[in-house]
């Protein structure tokens, strides 16, 4: 992240997201400010709060994608939550602190996976030694004598036996590495600690109780192992995974994960406009203002209790988004407005943007369908007029019905290619050209019938 200037962040986002330059500039500045904060003197560092952002715009214009790509770009912990799932404490639903717990859980798993990758080679070596022990077990008589009768056996005799055993072991090691033992089965013991499932329903979540029930019961329950018969390659993978888990220091993993969340975590709060009450606090909107007040301390900065320990939210970056059709950001409670100083309005998408979305990004929709059909040996070619026609129809349907932005393209493409996708395995003609006429024939009747297009497109 320290190497990325705001202009470079925007350039990377351009590879996946069309347009929305104002939003890209805002998020790139917010991200760079995190790096700048870490360069300032330590006494001032904790005083600099993250500049949280509200992205305003209809669905399907790229709000979520901007936040998701941003986190992948910087390898930051990221979670997306719908604000409408939260309810004020006392009502049935999730409490707002659960989003921080979810973020930490994801980060712990991510850091643990990376830690296991770093010890993969060592784990494979230990697994290889365990496999050789299984393939060349010591005789039972020798196992008993090792501890008791070792003193009576002449030293030169022991050395001779050890050398012979070592030679056989090295031959087996060579055969194992060359894959000559791949069809052989071995019995391995895999540790299996059965922990009964305990579900507790509370408004605060299980972590608030200060007890990790799973760990507690795991310590009480006896540790058992189950024996499985596996082929040598599969057994090697299983043993290597087990050894990798044993080599990873979980305390260090948790410590690094908490630090990562506190310093570089990103929480994307979708549908924040759904927790804004339009007409006072009565009727079904009774808990909405309460959710905003519950969100306030988390966004402002507090300690959230998790099963891994307390997590500070002072420097987590919050990116909120909403359509704000019938309400305005100023309808949020004043304290929460103050915690989201940056507001960016995203542009609605039209025909020109749809053409670019279909063809330009690295994960362009047309490229996805071409790759899917290529697996069946079918080569589909889209003419320029076909792409323009699809984009034009998407714009018209969005204007006539609900405006769902670029998501309309998915619906159109599925309906347009339905027959080809169904018949692809049995097609004799392996090259199909889709032009403007094909698109018109397939979509014109439905598009012209407004009632029908509401149901199908």
Automatic annotation (TrEMBL):
GO molecular function list: ATP binding; ATP hydrolysis activity; peptidase activity; proteasome-activating activity
Cited function: ATPase subunit of a proteasome-like degradation complex; this subunit has chaperone activity. The binding of ATP and its subsequent hydrolysis by HslU are essential for unfolding of protein substrates subsequently hydrolyzed by HslV. HslU recognizes the N-terminal part of its protein substrates and unfolds these before they are guided to HslV for hydrolysis.
Name the record gives this protein: ATP-dependent protease ATPase subunit HslU
Entry's Gene Ontology cellular component terms: HslUV protease complex
Superkingdom, taxonomy of origin: Bacteria
Subunit and interaction comment: A double ring-shaped homohexamer of HslV is capped on each side by a ring-shaped HslU homohexamer. The assembly of the HslU/HslV complex is dependent on binding of ATP.
CDD domains in alphabetical order: RecA-like_HslU (cd19498)
Chain segments annotated as coiled-coil in the UniProt record: none
One GO term (biological process): protein unfolding
Domain Clp ATPase C-terminal as annotated: residue spans: 349-445
Record's subcellular location: Cytoplasm
């Amino acid at each position: 992240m320290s190497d990325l200037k705001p202009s470079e962040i925007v350039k990377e986002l351009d590879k996946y997201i069309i347009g929305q330059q104002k939003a890209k500039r805002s998020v790139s500045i917010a991200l760079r400010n995190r790096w700048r904060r870490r360069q300032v003197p330590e006494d001032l560092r904790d005083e600099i709060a993250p500049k949280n952002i509200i992205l305003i715009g209809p669905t399907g214009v790229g709000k979520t994608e901007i936040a998701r790509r941003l986190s992948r770009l910087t390898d930051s912990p990221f979670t997306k939550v719908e604000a409408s799932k939260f309810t004020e404490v006392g009502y049935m639903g999730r409490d707002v602190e659960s989003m921080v717990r979810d973020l930490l859980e994801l980060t712990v798993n991510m850091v643990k996976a990376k830690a296991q990758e770093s010890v993969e080679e060592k784990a494979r070596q230990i697994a290889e030694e365990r496999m050789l022990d299984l393939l060349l077990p010591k005789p039972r008589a020798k196992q008993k004598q090792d501890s008791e009768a070792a003193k009576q056996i002449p030293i030169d005799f022991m050395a001779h036996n050890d050398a012979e055993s070592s030679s056989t072991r090295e031959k087996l090691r060579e055969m194992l590495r060359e894959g000559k033992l791949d069809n052989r089965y071995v019995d391995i013991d895999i540790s299996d600690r059965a922990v009964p499932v305990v579900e507790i329903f509370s408004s605060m979540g299980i972590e608030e109780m200060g007890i990790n029930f799973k760990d507690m019961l795991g310590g009480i329950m006896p540790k058992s192992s189950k024996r499985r018969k596996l082929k040598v390659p599969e057994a090697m993978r299983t043993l290597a995974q087990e050894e990798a888990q044993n080599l990873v220091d979980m305390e260090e993993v948790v410590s690094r994960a908490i630090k990562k969340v506190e310093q570089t975590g990103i929480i994307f709060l979708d549908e924040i406009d759904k927790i804004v009450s339009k007409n006072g606090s009565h009727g079904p909107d009774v808990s909405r203002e309460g959710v905003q007040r519950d969100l306030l301390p988390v966004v402002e900065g507090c300690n959230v209790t998790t099963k891994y320990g307390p997590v500070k939210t002072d420097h987590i970056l919050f990116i909120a988004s909403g359509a704000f059709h019938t309400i305005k950001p100023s309808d949020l409670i004043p304290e929460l407005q103050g915690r989201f100083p940056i507001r960016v309005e995203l542009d609605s998408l039209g025909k020109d943007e749809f053409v670019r979305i279909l063809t330009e990004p690295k994960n362009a929709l047309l490229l996805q369908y071409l790759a899917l059909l290529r697996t069946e040996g079918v080569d589909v070619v889209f003419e320029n007029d076909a792409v323009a026609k699809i984009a034009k129809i998407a714009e018209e349907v969005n204007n006539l019905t609900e405006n769902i932005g670029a998501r309309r393209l998915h619906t159109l493409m599925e309906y347009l290619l339905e027959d080809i996708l169904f018949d692809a395995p049995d097609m004799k003609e392996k090259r199909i050209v889709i032009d403007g006429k094909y698109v018109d024939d397939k979509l014109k009747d439905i598009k012209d019938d407004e009632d029908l297009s509401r149901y199908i497109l």
